[in-house]
Amino acid sequence: MNVALNWIDWTVIVGYLAFDFAVGLIFAKRAGRNTNEFFISGRKLSWWLAGTSMVATSFSSDTPLVITGWVRTGGVSENWFWWSFAIGGMLSVFLLAKLWRRAEVVTNVELTELRYSGKPAAALRACRAAYLALPINCITMAWVIVAMLKLMKVLFGFYPLLALVVCLGLTTFYCILSGFWGVVITDFIKFILAMAGSIGLCILVARNFNGLSDLSTQAQLNSPLHENVVRFFPRPPAGTGPLEWAFWSGPMFAFVVFLSVQWWANKNADGGGIVVQRMSSAKDERHSLLATLWFNIANYALRPWPWILVALASIVVFPDLKDGESAYPEMIKRFVPAGLMGLMITSFLAAFMSTINTTLNLSSSYLVNDVYRRFVQHNRSEKHYVAVSRLASLGFMIISSVIALRCDSISGLFKFMLAFSSGVGGVYILRWFWWRINAWSEISAMLASSLISSLLYIFKNPLGDPSYPVILTVTVAGSTVVWLATTFITAPVTEDKLIAFYRKVRPYGAWGRIARLAGQQPVGGLGQQIVNWIAGTVMVLAYTLSAGKFLLAQPGQGAIYLVAALLGTIIVWKAVRPARAVVDVQAKSAGRSLQPVDSV
């Protein structure tokens, strides 16, 4: 039976869409002034707005569906697939956020010609922009669209093509109209709506159990995983020891790969296009750092548990459902009454539109800023480039829609994309800390990872159907050998380019020779920043696990994780406070009246 909406539901949905379009109209003129306004909001965003936009964009209509599928098939511990990215996220906070803002780029790809020299740098910029805009971002939008199609089909029985036209027509029009200004302003409201929807559903579902402890117990009874469904860490097979292969195979091997390889090997290891776009749009370095810190706290510690609890409950309510990703919309249909359904649908629309808007805007920035403007049309007006950006957004949406109509698994698309783009992350991180990395390092890493992962997927059956962690490990190992060898057999970046980069960005690490050539002292403090990075990682992951333990009625373990989280918080707070002090000292020395300083 399909869901029926009453007048209250339709009022909420229509009111939300009207708000979005109003914001789009308000910012249409401003976004149309130039590409700086259209792509990075003129670099005027406060940390709380930029950081909330990062969070809102990082989850969409696909996220609760795919997490539900993972919990049903692999248990809560399956979330380490994405929890592991918190390690790289906190690396960005303390070691990269300020550097990205100092670089003053529009896209992460633009850094290529700031960091490297000659024709290889120019070729890399064009190729990587096309690589990210077409296969990577179009696949990303495709899995988001697949999730929305599943949701609408379960709730309303819409034929997928009709649902696609309705949702994407609204989203694309809004994105083309308002540019990045409209994206970040509405992202703030979308984050609130999306969290309200997920928490609201969790409360409605939990009311049908005798507390969350009962929910956990019943999930264990109904799941083929039994008690492992609620474990936070995978367990090796019984009777095996650390020296046996069986101990490290299966979920345990995946867990080790996620924590030791995946977080640094993927294409977003140094922030990624979406996060870098918001770092670049921040007012200054301090706002860039705080925005990224807030993003990581909210992304990992605040948002996942309503989805996970609903996923556990779905095991009890729909134990025989074959498509685990459809369980989440089925729970909505079962438990959300008329009058509140409008809020739930609006929360999904908000999450969906946020991710699609951002990805379309980012893809257009790659095409226009890094290809069209750089290599095709150099001296056209700003309005011309904005017009091309809007046409590009429409084209990318059409391509993504075609991909989505030919796929039915969100998780499958997600894992293929990660494997396809793994192996490049090591280069992206080291180019900030080691002057010897050159354009050929990136080119070889990109080509090797794409080729190796594609061959492994093409010949997956003859190879014995290797799991995703195995494909990831082989891809990263092969591409790392290729790019390291390429780095040492090719010429380094010219000294004048390295000196200019060092003076502009002032990176940490092995830049002593370049610093001396630039007439400067090498930047110190790398050791302290590594301590801050480790403490921040402990803080975020401990808060995440503590929240889960308390919610699943395990207060003793929850308290232990909470203590670890608080210790990490103390170190992070001490690291962040000097940024406030510097602002105060500068204000006093300039004889200006002190303005209120934002706090973490």
Overview of the molecule:
- 74% of the residues lie in helices and 0% in strands.
- With 600 residues, the protein is an all-alpha fold.
- Helix 1 (7-31) packs across helix 9 (160-206) and helix 15 (304-317) crosses helix 16 (327-335).
- The model is unreliable at 579-600 (pLDDT under 50).
Terminal CA distance? 47 Å
What is the arithmetic mean of pLDDT? 87
**Contiguous uncertain segments of 5+ residues:** 579-600
Give me the Rg, rounded: 24 Å
Task: State which percent range the strand residues make up.
Answer: under 5%
In N-to-C order, the SSE pattern is HHHHHHHHHHHHHHHHHHHHHHHHHH
Summed up, the helix count is 26
Structure class: mainly alpha
* Helical content band: over 70%
Counting DSSP E segments of at least 2 residues, the number of strands comes to 0
**Biggest sheet character:** none
Shape: globular
Short description:
The protein has 600 residues and is mainly α. It has helices at residues 7-31, 35-40, 47-58, 62-74, 80-83, 85-103, 111-115, 118-156, 160-206, 212-222, 245-248, 251-265, 272-281, 285-302, 304-317, 327-335, 341-376, 382-404, 410-420, 425-430, 439-458, 468-489, 495-505, 512-517, 526-551, 555-589.
